[in-house]
Structures are given as structure tokens and as C-alpha cells.
Amino acid sequence: MCGDFIALAGNQRALELGQRFVDRDLNRAWTEERLERLLSGDPGDFLAEDHEQVELLNAIEEARRAARGSVYLLDLHTTSGEGGPFTTFGDTLANREFASTIPVPMILGLEELVDGTLLSYFGERGWVAVVFESGQHDEPTARDRAAAAIWVFVAAAGLVPHADMPQAAEGWKLLNGETRRLPRVLEMRYRHPVDMVDGFTMSPGYLNFQKVEEGEVVARDVRGVVRVPEASRILMPLYQVQGEDGFFLVREFRPFWLWMSGALRTLRVDRVAHLLPGVARDPNDPHAVVVDRRVARWYALQLFHLLGFRKLEDEGGLLVLRRRALEGGREA
Predict the structure, then answer these.
(1) How far apart are CA 203 and CA 136, in angstroms?
(2) Following DSSP, what letter does each residue of 106-150 receive, concatenated?
(3) C-beta separation of 220 from 193 below 8 A
(4) Are 115 and 121 in contact (CB under 8 A)?
(5) What helix, strand, coil percent values describe the chain, rounded to 5?
(6) C-alpha distances out from residue 8 to 12, 74, 148, Å
(7) Mean pLDDT to the nearest integer, 237-263
(8) Pairing of strands 201-202, 217-221
(9) Bridge partners, residue 280, by sequence
């Protein structure tokens, strides 16, 4: 083996109880502010997930300090809804290259809709970081898919030559066989947030990547029926009591745009983005721009996604976006 392979198990207390969390969602707590409070706080005041988060952070940071080369983070998850596996990641070229080695749908844009994930926290630090969702919690094949993904990604990271790892080829074949009829690249279009007081109940039978029509009733809550705002595919429908995400909507887009964004980023067009009409540098952040939607209403978000920017704020007609970071502190 060329390099180190480190495996960490997370969310142990909640898993023992068969729940998403005990006191708070561990995968919505990876923010600078919360970690600063934890690291400077009194462990006697910690909630259940606080102890585990500090342990995980210390273990991951120890691994990073010991690294002799590139660092890759593979974050394995399962979902409450059934359906095909997929990957999601911050849209950098390095993450795309890593994720594309595995033949499942790639979902772009999740980090703009969900705050505090482990993926976003370490992705913003320049790590190559990818989430792999392997299937429904209790589905036996979810374990097989996760194992297959590990083998494929270990080979992709260069830890062991492909010729010496037949499990990687077998894993690739398994995953490709399960998802070959699904789109390979999709973008996040919508997140339906929920709260415990909403009484949100997902309608039965929805699967990951199932097509839904505009206006289709997919759930109910205290306000009545919940309809889909646009024709799309549903992702991660909530079939458990806990959780802040009722469902997501994704939509396929042409691979040409992936190629186009790769070309624009390679040419470093992002360096002159502030010269576009209605665009200015953010005076508080050298890697961010502020876009006046009244001027740049036709191309704002889509263009800056192509250039490697991530949406930070979208209020009052102003859009604030920041370049995603790559390993070593470089921009996407």
C-alpha cells in the first residue's frame, strides 16, 4: 500500500438507538462557530453528539497532520428512502475527477442548500471530499454498495495499483449495473426544509431519482398538502421522524456544461469575473464577488457555478458568491 487508509465510525450513540441523532444532527454541526465553541467549552456541558464530534475532529486532524501527500475524504451515508446510490461533493475539478471514478449519479449543488455538513467543512479546507450515499438504512445491499465504493475509491486514490485489487473492478461492475439507467450528472434544484412542529409526513412509495411532476402532492404537514414546485426527480425523501430535510429535487443537465466549466476554470476566467456588468469584488473577502441581480439577472448564478463559485448569500437583489477552495488553498 502506498499511503495510509484510515476508517472512522461516526454517529455511534444515535445508531445504537436506531435514530438519526440523540440531541442534535451531527451532520449539520460542522461550522467554524460551533467548533470554536466546542473546543473552548466545558466537556461537562456537552450534549451526546458534542463528545463524538470533538473526537472525530481530533482524529481527522491527526490524520491530516500525518499525511505525506494528498488527502482524500470519503464520507459514507445511508438514507431513510430507498433507491439508487449517488455521490455529492463541492464542485471543484479535483472532486469531480475523484467522484467520476465511480459509476453512480453525481449530484452538484447540495452544499449550497444544506449548512454544517462534514463534507463542506473539510471541502472548504481544500480537501478532496466526496459523500457516497449507498441506499436505505436497513437495506442489506446498502452495505455491499458502500464496500464497493470503498474499493473503487481506494484504487482511485492510488493507494494500491488496480492490477493488485480485483475488488475495485468488481465493485465498479456492481455499482454500474445498478445505476446504468440513471442520469450521470444532476443539479440540486430545491430543498424542502422541515421542523418537528410541522408534522411532516412523506407520502409512501417514493424512491431516489423517481420522476415527479409540477404540482404533484408528495407529502402533508400541518398546513396541508406539500406539492412539488417543478418537474424533476425526487431525492432523499424523509421516511423517519428526525431530520431537517423533507425531500430534495434534482434535475439532469447536459455533460457538455461540465466540459465547458472545466475549460473556463482551466483558463482561470474567474479572475476577470468582477469585470462583468453588475459584478464587483467583495471588499471583505478577496475570493468573493457581489452580483447585482437587477443588472446580471440572466446569467448570474449559472455562470458563476461554471466558474467554480459557491453561493453564500442571496438577499435583497444581491448575490454573494465565493470561489471554492482546492487542496493547498488554491481556488477551484
Answers:
(1) 16
(2) EEE-HHHH--S-HHHHHHTTT-EEEEEEEEETT-HHHHHHHHHHH
(3) no
(4) no
(5) 35, 25, 35
(6) 11, 10, 17
(7) 93
(8) antiparallel
(9) 290
Determine whether 246 is exposed, middle or buried from the number of CB atoms within 10 Å of its CB (0-12, 13-18, 19+).
buried
Q: Which domain holds residue 276?
A: 259-329
pLDDT tens digits along 157-192: 999 988 888 999 999 999 999 999 999 999 999 999
| CA angle (259 as vertex; 253, 264 as ends), nearest 5 | 115
Rounded to 10 degrees, the C-alpha dihedral 49/235/148/18 comes to 40
Q: Which of 327, 308, 330, 309 is nearest to 126 (CA)?
A: 327
Q: Domain of 237: which CATH number?
A: 2.40.50
Whether 244 and 267 share a structural domain: no
* pLDDT tens-digit map of 14-39: 999 999 999 999 999 999 999 999 99
User: 179, 203, 220 — which closes off a domain?
Assistant: 179
